[in-house]
Amino acid sequence: MDPVFTLQWPEYIVAERLRKHFSPKDGYSILIPMSRQEKGFDLAIVYRNTRTKKPSVVTIQVKASRAYLSSPPKRKKTIKYKYSTWFNCFEVSDRADFFILIGMYPPDLSRTRKVSAKWYQDCSLLFTNKEMKHFMTNCKTVRGKPDRMFGFRFDDMKTIVLTRGDMTRSRKDYTDFLLAKRFYLIKDKMSKI
């Protein structure tokens, strides 16, 4: 009998995206803990620096949500977005250097033919440990109490807004936190190790 190792789908998607950006031919490796009970991080990126001969390691924790379809607005003035994500608030581990929040969504709801897993899209946001701690500290209800959940809404990757977890409900824009725009943060951190 062959041994089987399973990986949560969102973690696999993030690992694959990181592997494409941090290529093995450039000295990078994406590592996954063997134990599902590993506390504090889900993935690690190792860079083997040929100049210093010293490896650099960065750890990442992945938090996932489905993207829910929003109902149409009741009033014309109401701003609604097509997709919503819902995340549970969590304790920010010091063992993770970065946090990736990923929401999976179907880009074309009118499609009736069978699709593969590659057809699904995702909205992935990258936070540093410090940014995630600040975010969680300020994740509050309208009455100023700690919220147990937070969520983002979007139509596409042009605008991502926070709609739950912000006491003022100001729809703060998090588009600049998209993973595709922040790979440089991981490289910067690795270069300083």
Spatial shape: globular
Total separate domains: 1
- Listing every helix as H and every strand as E from the N terminus to the C terminus, the arrangement reads HEEEEEEEHEEH
Q: What are the segments in which pLDDT stays under 50 over at least 5 consecutive residues?
A: none
CATH architecture classification: 3-Layer(aba) Sandwich
For the record, the CATH class is Alpha Beta
Please explain how this structure is put together.
The protein is built from 3 helices and 9 strands. It has helices at residues 9-21, 129-137, 179-191, and strands at residues 28-31, 43-48, 55-69, 83-85, 87-88, 98-105, 121-128, 149-154, 160-164. Strands 1, 2, 3, 4, 5, 6, 7, 8 and 9 form a 9-stranded mixed β-sheet that branches. It starts with 8 loop residues before the first helix and ends with a helix.
Give a topology summary:
Layout: H1 9-21, E1 28-31, E2 43-48, E3 55-69, E4 83-85, E5 87-88, E6 98-105, E7 121-128, H2 129-137, E8 149-154, E9 160-164, H3 179-191
Parallel strand pairs: 3-6
Antiparallel strand pairs: 1-2, 2-3, 3-4, 4-8, 5-8, 6-7, 8-9
